[in-house]
Amino acid sequence: MSRPSPLDPLRSAPTGTLWWRHGKLSLLLLRAPLLAAGILLLALLMASVASLMLGSAGLGPWDAFKAAFGHGEFATVFVVQELRLPRLLAGIATGAAFSLAGCLMQTLAGNRLATPGIIGIDNGATAFAVASVVGMGISLAPPVMALSGAVIATALAFGLSGGIGTRGYRFLVAGIGVGALFGAGTQLMLARVSIDAANSAYPWTVGSLNARDADSLTWLGLALLIGVPIALWLGRGLNTLRFTDRVATGLGQPVSRVRLITLWLSVVLTAAAVAVAGPVGMVALVGPEIARYLSRHKGVPLLASALAGALVMVLADLAGRTLLSPLEIPVGIVMAVVGSPYLLWILLRSPR
């Protein structure tokens, strides 16, 4: 009887898994999350091509693909490389960051409503970013200011929750109050500056991918480059947070350290995304829900959440650009209109 190749999946692998082994190395993967990630990645590629093709100047798939790499007619290359491609990259990056941060925060709090937008991190980052744009005596760049606002909002939510930590509805209520406070501060700043300064800060109040700052997008890319591997590394520890602290500790997980890293990773990703697109918090709610539905397992779908968020953001921006062309609808408004009914359907549908 011939022995199976060490590069082939073992026949003894548990149902619904893929087990790869080579020598002393072994890797066990669940089929459902892998299939979900593959489906979302394929859908994201298709949406990206559509985003480069569609607009006031329609392009064919091959022309759009060539123009993305600088080949073709000058006008086509200009439209793709200068207008559509930066916007597409911003949509992918911000959607992935918002959705991954939402998945992390939901897991940390044990509540599907505990996203950075709900607990005030989005509004804190937005308020400080707007302060740097409208010239309130602060010269720091929007990414730095957004991170400062996100940190302060998180600290206030923790402090006002009275030692409850990230668990329970008291933390959510404190976060909602903090978010409302920072939202009011943003509106007050906009009311006290000139109309030109208010217009320049307007995209940060509703969420927009139009003419995003290249430096902010670079900072977001670095945050994702570092944050996604850290999130995947935290995966096993995040799975144990569903149990009590004693059980998680008994399984060998440093619960306090996992929670601390998860919290600040969510804060950094949210701040970097807000510095690019403004507060599009609905992505942090819808993205993880899509990932959980497709993955169909009880773990934490981190990679699928990032891909789902990127897909949702790209589609929302594409709809905002094309539905009422030449009038453009900011992506934040599209997400609020489309995402809210979808979220209600997700929350109210009967569990299977």
Give your account of this protein's structure.
A two-stranded antiparallel sheet has the order 1-2. The protein has a single domain, classed as ABC transporter involved in vitamin B12 uptake, BtuC, CATH 1.10.3470. A hairpin with a 2-residue loop joins strand 1 and strand 2. Helix 2 packs across helix 3. The protein is globular and about 60 Å long. About 1% of the residues have low confidence. Helix content is 69%, strand content 3%. The chain starts with 16 loop residues before the first strand and ends with a helix. The relative contact order is 0.15. The chain has 352 residues and is mainly alpha-helical. It comes from Cobetia amphilecti. InterPro entries: ABC_BtuC-like (IPR037294), ABC_transptr_permease_BtuC (IPR000522). Keywords: Cell membrane, Membrane, Transmembrane, Transmembrane helix, Transport.
